[in-house]
Amino acid sequence: SDDQWETISAWIYGFGLSSLFIVSTVFHTISWKKRHLRTVEHCLHMFDRMVIYFFIAASYAPWLNLRELGPWASHMRWIIWIMASVGTVYVFFFHERYKLVELVCYVIMGFFPAVVILSMPNRDGLPELVAGGLSYCLGMVFFKSDGRIPFAHAIWHLFVAIGAGIHYYAIWRYLYRPSTLEAKKPR
């Protein structure tokens, strides 16, 4: 990172990405070993769902903080975190009651900031953002098919890992790579 915003954005994104995979791994490990751990499993399941909202917000942070935004788009920097907070409250009160509503909330939160990204003057990295988003969306088919398609949940996690990997590459390549940094800095 060359400046304060790059450092902050990297920490936010790194924390969101790491949290998603750590919480998911701990939850699935406890869930798999579930001997007398129902309360812990329930709390970790809720936390697993909550961290998804913050991961989505953290994934957008570098794009919203390090790129020139359109006139109204700068508000998306805080709107995305409000959406993550509302999603967290929703999971806390309605965990596993309205699964389709929760899925729709994830999708809306995932696509709503993309409109802002499309309005940015510099669209480098857009194909990778779309590819990562499509990986998450295709994975949702398997997520909703859990129990009907063999290994559907594991396949869902593979799509998440692929989408996260593509987005990680895009952030590194278009926002942090030295040749890109030189091109975007005014001289």
Automatic annotation (TrEMBL):
Record has Mitochondrion as a keyword: no
Stretches that traverse the bilayer: 12-32, 44-63, 75-93, 100-120, 155-175
Keywords: Membrane, Metal-binding, Transmembrane, Transmembrane helix, Zinc
Superkingdom to which the source organism belongs: Eukaryota
Binding residue positions for Zn(2+): 28, 153, 157
Membrane topology reported for the UniProt record: Multi-pass membrane protein
Pfam family, one: HlyIII
InterPro entries per UniProt: AdipoR/HlyIII-related (IPR004254), Hy-lIII (IPR005744)
Listed GO MF terms: metal ion binding; pore-forming activity
Subcellular location: Endomembrane system
Gene Ontology annotations for the cellular component aspect, listed alphabetically: endomembrane system; membrane
NCBIfam families: hlyIII
Family membership: Belongs to the ADIPOR family.
Annotated protein name in UniProt: Monocyte to macrophage differentiation associated 2
